[in-house]
Amino acid sequence: MTTVREQLEVYEKEYLSPYATLSMNSKGRMRKEEPCDIRPVFQRDRDRIIHSKSFRRLKDKTQVFLTPEGDHYRTRLTHTLEVSQNARTIAKALRLNEDLAEAIALGHDLGHTPFGHAGERALNRVCPFGFEHNVQSVRTVDLLEKSGLGLNLTMEVRDGILNHQTSGKPSTLEGKIVRYSDKIAYIHHDMDDAIRGGILTEEDIPKEISQRIGETTGERLNHFIHDLVTNSRGKNDISLSPSVEEAMKMLRKFMFERVYNNREAKGEEKKAEQLMETLYEYYLSHTEVLPREYQRMMYDGEKKEQVVCDYVGAMTDRFAIAKYEEIYIPKCWHG
Q1: SS3 173
Q2: Torsion sign (Cα): 271, 276, 279, 280
Q3: Cα–chain center distance at 276
Q4: Closest C-alpha among 146, 133, 74, 72 to residue 107
Q5: CATH number belonging to domain 4-28+35-113+143-265
Q6: pLDDT, tens digit, 9 for 90 and up, residues 219-240
């Protein structure tokens, strides 16, 4: 009898674009597994990511603003969900594989540090192997999840996670969708948070940008997604029109000048970097206090510098601060 999964695979083949990545044509996993009788492979990957510990930790990791006062600022988790929503919308409109796009989007930042890019910069400085969150995200799903077993994701999802940054070159159109969706999401929600925090106003947006792609955050987001869909339909590529691509570059440049390099918005980041470097150096000298699974990794041949980087990089903001206080602040000073 034909399984539900097989029926869904046939549906994909009959309905999706000829440029879509079909579940039945996946390059497979690092370790072979029996297929699920209900879910195609990319849907199964999405479910594994959602149920992972690294996904749950995203709720307490900084997106852009450290310890913002208010409940409506983005975290790394809400950023991930916004990227996923953008990617699903675009993939569905182009009749590409929505499950694959969603799985890549949900997994793209699993290896991100606490304290946003400040934490990433700190670990990249002190770890002799360097630190890039996209590479660490793949390491997380391959090795760090499930006590060393990893999630055993498909090659297509792993490729999309690895190549989600601007410089990346995903091998699937669904991966290219996520790469754009990530940029579209962070530019717009970071601007929204900056306006909420009083760092920007809508009137600060250069007229040459607002006149081209919209006067509000919502209008600009809508314009980018519509342009991406319209410009990519019927093509074996994902791209914006030249005019809108130029507007995106202008908007990113504006955000770097006014928000990402803003002293008021980012003034506390040096403290976060110092905290991360201090924790790294402490655990490098005291590997005996690392959790058992990390000590086992060293026993199995992993370099201690990499293992310490894995441990500190996986922390949430709150856990990193708590560990710093536990190690360096006398208990009588707490509270």
Answers
A1: helix
A2: negative
A3: 20
A4: 133
A5: 1.10.3210.10
A6: 989 999 999 999 999 999 999 9
